[in-house]
Input
Amino acid sequence: MHDFLEKPAAFDGLAIIMSLVKEGAITLEQYNRALVNIRLEDYERADRPPPLKKDSKRLPGKALAVALHIRLMPYILWKIGGEQWMLEDEHRNLVNLLLLLQKLNEYILVDSLSIADLEVFEDVYISYLELRKGCKERYQTFGNLTPKDHFIEHYKQQILRHGPPNVTWTAVAERKHQEFLKVALYSKNYINLPKTLAVKSQKMLALRLSKGIFTAPKLQFPNKMAAPTTQELQSYPGILHTSDLVTSAATVTGTAYRTGHLVVTRITSSDIIEVSDINWNF
Output
C-alpha cells in the first residue's frame, strides 16, 4: 500500500491536476484555495493534504495525506466548477483516469475484500494502465512507469495470501521509527544512544501492555441519577474509606463541575438526551 501511495497515487494524481491546469480547465490558485478551505473531520485533520506548488513533482505530504488527497480530488474539482467541463471530450480521459485512480485508492485502503472484489480490482488496474498510456502520449506531465507501478499487478495475490494491504503496510514500522527519533531528540544522550533507545522502548512497550490493568472497578448503581453516597462507595473495597476526603468540585479538561450543575448523563439518539444535576450526598 505504501508503494501505491508514494508513487502511482502521488505522481499520477499531481500529473492529472497539472494537465488540467495546462489545459485551462482550472487554475492552481483555485484548486489550492478549495483544498485549504475544505472542512475535515477531527480524525482527518492530522492528514490534511498540503497545497500544491508549481514546481511540485508529486502530491506533497505523507502517505495518508496522499490517500486523503486522492479521495477528495474529484470533489474539489467539482466544487471549483468541474461540472462545466468534466464531460467535455478534451478532458474526459483525465477525469476517467482520476476516477480509476480513486477506485484503486479505495480498494487498497479498505478493511476487507471478497474474491469478487479482487476480480474487480484487477479489472480496474488493467483499465487504469491502458488509459494512463493514452494520457502519457498526450500530456507531458506524466512520467514513465516504474517498478512500484508494476507492483500493483501483484496486489491480488498478496491480498489473497496476507489479507488487505492496511494490515501489512510499512506505516506501522515508520511510526515506530518516529518514536525512536523523538527519544533520540529529547533525551540529549549522545554517549550511549542505543542503550537509551532500548530502555525507553521497553518502558513504552510495558506501558502499552499494562494499559487498562490498574483501572478501578466499574461502579453501577441501578435506578440512581444522583452521585452515590459514602456508604454506597464504601461497599467497593479500595474506592473510598471513612478517613478519605471528598472534593466539593472537579475540573475535567478545563471545565469545573460543582454541585447543582446540569450535565448530560446519556444520549439515546441525535434528538434525545438525558440530563441530571450534580448532587454530592456526602
